[in-house]
Amino acid sequence: MAGDDAATPPTAEMPSASLNPSPERRRRECIASIVGRGAVSDELIGKRIRVGGWVKTGREQGKGAFAFLELNDGSCLSNLQVIVNASVFPLAQLVHTGTSVLVEGELKKPPEGVKQRVELHADRVLEDGPADPSSYPIPKTRLTLEFLRDIVHLRPRTNTISAIARIRDELAYATHTFFRENGFRYVHTPIITTSDCEGAGEMFQVTTLFSDAEKLEKDLKNNPSPSESEIEDAKLLVKKNGEDVAHLKSLKARKEEISASVLKLNKAKESLAKLEERFNLKPGIPQKDGKIDYSRDFFGRQAFLTVSGQLQVETHACAVGNVYTFGPTFRAEHSHTSRHLAEFWMIEPEIAFADLEDDMYYAEEYVKFLCRWLLDHCIEDMEFMVKNYDKSAIDRLKLVSSEPFKRISYTEAVELLCSVTDKKFENKVEWGVDLASEHERYLTEVIFKRPVIVYNYPKEIKAFYMRLNDDKKTVAAMDVLVPKVGELIGGSQREERYDALVERITSAGLPLEPYHWYLVLRKFGTVKHCGFGLGFERMIMFATGIDNIRDVIPFPSVS
User: Fold this and answer.
1) pTM value?
2) How far apart are CA 186 and CA 184, in angstroms?
3) Which leading EC class covers this enzyme (predicted)?
């Protein structure tokens, strides 16, 4: 193919990305390193840098001779002022809000009396991504969080959502740091599972039965099933070929002749099997004994999106010691409140050779560590939250990080709440009923004015895997309650006794078969262990003061 060879240049002549960039190629600097909290602007004066970001505001000055651009790259709240002369680039293409630019120039000290500590005089505009001002949905004016939920793909460009993104990132990093420093191993647990950790049945089902049925219906329409006469003809052919093989063997024919005849018989049998299989195909969802036949599903049984990685991570706690998982979980709960999501993230540590006291200790230390981390590493964004959303946000972090958590039993909590006379609760308080958010917040905000750990809950309102106490009425469970959100953490000592766990599963009305592997852990080297789960979005709401959980997760999938 001489023509093709001529059209394709030799490999040596083709341009390629350099894995070893030339010394003059500059790395893009983050704006946070220039004007963010802690940046030493004076030491940067005279330095030549390259920055990229999105124009917050832009305006032409000096009758179009130059333009001021307020540039933000998401690394911090602060903007970097960039000055571009008309001789460098057409200014009309740069000044619209939302425009992206990559510029290079020299950092200089601005004139006296202006708020900026440093500004960039750009002499090169390397890239620009225009934004049509007539259709760009994020104007310079302040927007409501409700409005921003309709433009999830662009809302990270706003101050609020970008600040939440940085706070979320810091909390995630702090989580891994805390558990690493305390000797925990990070375990990845499956998103698809066949067991219901909570036993509530509020799970999203994972199935290919519907798509398989659609494919089959389309296939049968284009290629109809064989008729009964075709099946009979195929059976006759198999019979005939079988008789031919038997006849050749009776004649003691040559081996080659018999082998060829056997091959012909086998092909006829394969063809018949395929015809019979196709003949038996029925459109619709497969059924057996009047119920959906999940043995025909992808996994051969019912499967779901996980509501928790706890059961799986327990396998590693009973093998490699203290572990934790941090990942997405899903709940098919038909609740459209500001506190519920269909998809959310959970941190779930599991502690080997430990009881409820150890569980409460680690939960308290973890929450305090997160609060201290935000105060030490994210104070600029937290100050933004105080100014715009919750004046007590920083004080709340300081309180939780410094005060010892109050510990009371569930029974004591109910007695305290029943004795309240200065407030009428919307939800009834009585022993045996789970505490509502208003009860939890009253305990921590009014009665104790600090975080509270409530422990030893009635067994009827808690999950099957929680260890039954000696009173046979309560389980070794605990909840960490904090101001603003109420329950932040739920945990327990796990039931390590085989017979007791079997009883708890069956009394909850759950089948034993999906939990067979979980029960086996109690047969071979069973050990006391405990763990807890922290809802990551709840933690962000607590820290920032944001009221709606849909505003603290990048992509809210609301049930």
Assistant:
1) 0.86
2) 7
3) ligase
